[in-house]
Amino acid sequence: MKAKSDKSFELYRKKLIEKEKNDVSVKRESMLNIALVFPNDYSVGMANLGFQTVYRLFNELDSISCERSFYYKEFPNITKTLESGRELRDFDIVAFSVSFELDIPNLVQVLINAGIEPRTEKRHSREPLVVCGGAVTFINPAPLEIFTDFMVVGEIEPQFKRFANLLLEKRIKGYTKSELSNMLAEVPGIFVPLLKNLEEPIKNEILPGKISSPQHSVIISPNSHFKNMFLIEVGRGCGRRCNFCAASHIYHPFRYFAPEQILAAIQNKSPDTKRIGLIGSAISDYPTIPELCERLVNHGYELGLSSFRLDRITPSFLQILEKGKVKSVTFAPEAGSERLRKIINKGLSHEAIISSANFIADSNINQIKLYFLIGLPGEEDSDINGIANLITEIHQVFFEKKVKKTITVSVNGFIPKPWTPFQWAKMETPNEIRRKRKMLATKIKSYPNVIINKKSIKEEMLQGVISLGDNNVGQAIYLKIKNKIDWAEAWREAGVNVDNLLYNEKTFDLKFPWESISVGIKKKILWQKWEASKK
Questions:
Q1: What does each C-alpha distance from 428 to 42, 158, 431, 466 come to in angstroms?
Q2: Are 54 and 37 in contact (CB under 8 A)?
Q3: Against a cut of 0.90, is the pTM above it?
Q4: Count of H helices and E strands in the chain?
């Protein structure tokens, strides 16, 4: 059975490679061999610019070779790289790019399947070093601590060369893991869990002056989530600081790249593709986004945009998007009432939303996607009715103008995130989330061309535990995967009190697990914003 699986994977691997347009040269022989793993599906990993950037940076160094691997859902027991088909355990370093909390169980499963001891304290010196980076590591690294030897807890570019050179030195000079740990601990933004000192948190190094160019795709694939699209970031961070959003707090200050930089990168780095995806947490706040899009369209490019603010939509901008063959636009009103949007610091008026709906009705855009959160602090049933009323009004605008457009509604349960004013908030119970979802669905399910995306409450609760948990949560994940037990038993064995973690409001004096690092935000300031939101 395994031989058949290996043979099938070999065909699968070669087909993926053959269809890729890869701008990176991977050396066959090198001093240091790194397997870069995205612990999720290939399509998701190849849509991640951080993953692609690390792959490029490692391979640009003369003495390092870096190959990719994924959590192959079609081949869950296979732990080989795409480029050569080598096993992960044969590499010097296995580096994980962790962008989502729910990918941590996949990370543990990958290590177990690869025959690598998941727990760093038990891992033999002859086994590969395990390194982690990605957004999760500098939101809350605690659940990852027992699995990783080192973590990059800030943006990768400023400390990359020093970090990579130390890894290379270990290989050349034969440093022990302990010796390397002590040296890496001196590198800003590198977190060594075994040397954790809560009195001196590791700083998340964000040095804008050293990030001279935007991240962009180096591999374009028809099997990516963004099919055959060249992705490029227009900016990093967000200046709006919504109270629930970690991305706007950990990536700061808000920076954007000049149009000339973006255009030059597209023209020089995107061979044979005319589909351009503009990426950013606050793409609608890019100072000259209409002009940038228009210049791209005039050069013959098709456009793709990440989520956009409704109050930045204009008829002239929609015309540019139409020329760029954009058929679907995504917006995140987040809440159904202006009152609640003020509480979460969203700052989006009802009039702006309906005005934008009228503009969209007059355009050739045929699908809009709306993202909402339920269970937010300060939420009342009237806010759930507000979501239904908002969707009703948008639907009515389209109906009155006799245009057929699809409205896709995604309703996500609110999860408190570290480094935000809402990190002290509690989550709604599963029963309450079900009640509110049912309440909303009852009001809008009969509307034609309105689709409600179903969400897994179990997954939302699991994400909440991992988002807020300490290293006991990491231990529970290990027990769940290793012993094939259910989550309830894993929480009990690891001593994780899920109810206390999720469903109780926190106090200021509570020491959070993520305070072992520092992202440059004062806890007192966040607490003041949390208190203000409740008033």
A1: 33, 39, 8, 16
A2: no
A3: yes
A4: 19, 19
Say how far apart CA 381 and CA 280 lie, in whole Å: 33
Count Cβ neighbours within 10 Å for each residue of 194-211 and write b for 16 or more, e otherwise.
eebeeeebbbbbbeeeeb
- Using DSSP's 3-state secondary structure scheme, residue 302 falls into strand
Q: What domains lie within the chain, and their CATH numbers?
A: 2-205 (3.40.50), 212-306 (3.30.750.210)
The tokens for 514 are 């993520």
Provide the CA 487 distance to its chain's centre, in angstroms.
24
Enter the tokens of residue 336: 């159904």
Cβ neighbors of 252 (< 8 A, separation 6 or more) are 206, 237, 519, 520, 521
Judge whether residue 518 has pLDDT over 90: no
Q: What is the rounded CA–CA span in Å between residue 145 and residue 98?
A: 13
* Residue 357: exposure state from Cβ atoms within 10 A (0-12, 13-18, ≥19): buried
Nearest Cα residue to 331 out of 382, 381, 283 = 283
How many whole angstroms separate alpha carbon 455 and alpha carbon 183? 44
Q: Are 314 and 275 in contact (CB under 8 A)?
A: no
Distance CA 195, CA 192 (A): 6
Q: How far apart are CA 335 and CA 233, in angstroms?
A: 27
What is the separation of C-alpha 155 from the centre of its chain, rounded to a whole number of angstroms?
A: 13
CB 132 within 8 A of CB 149: no
E-only strand ranges, 394-439:
406-413
Distance CA 341, CA 356 (A): 17
Q: Are 393 and 354 in contact (CB under 8 A)?
A: yes
Query: Phi and psi of 408, rounded to 5°?
Result: -100, 125
pLDDT single digits (tens) 362-385: 999 999 999 999 999 999 999 999
Q: Kindly state the tokens that stand for 283.
A: 């793409």
Q: At 235, list the tokens.
A: 């900016």
Output 19-24 pairs: Cβ under 8 A, ≥24 positions apart.
Answer: 19/221, 19/222, 19/223, 20/219, 20/220, 20/221, 21/219, 21/220, 21/221, 21/271, 21/272, 21/273, 22/218, 22/219, 23/56, 23/218, 23/219, 23/269, 23/271, 24/55, 24/56, 24/59, 24/218, 24/219
Q: In terms of Cα–Cα distance, which of 519, 524, 533 is closest to 251?
A: 519
> For 391-439, how does the pLDDT look when each residue is reduced to its tens digit (9 = 90+)?
999 999 999 999 999 999 999 999 999 999 999 999 999 999 999 999 9
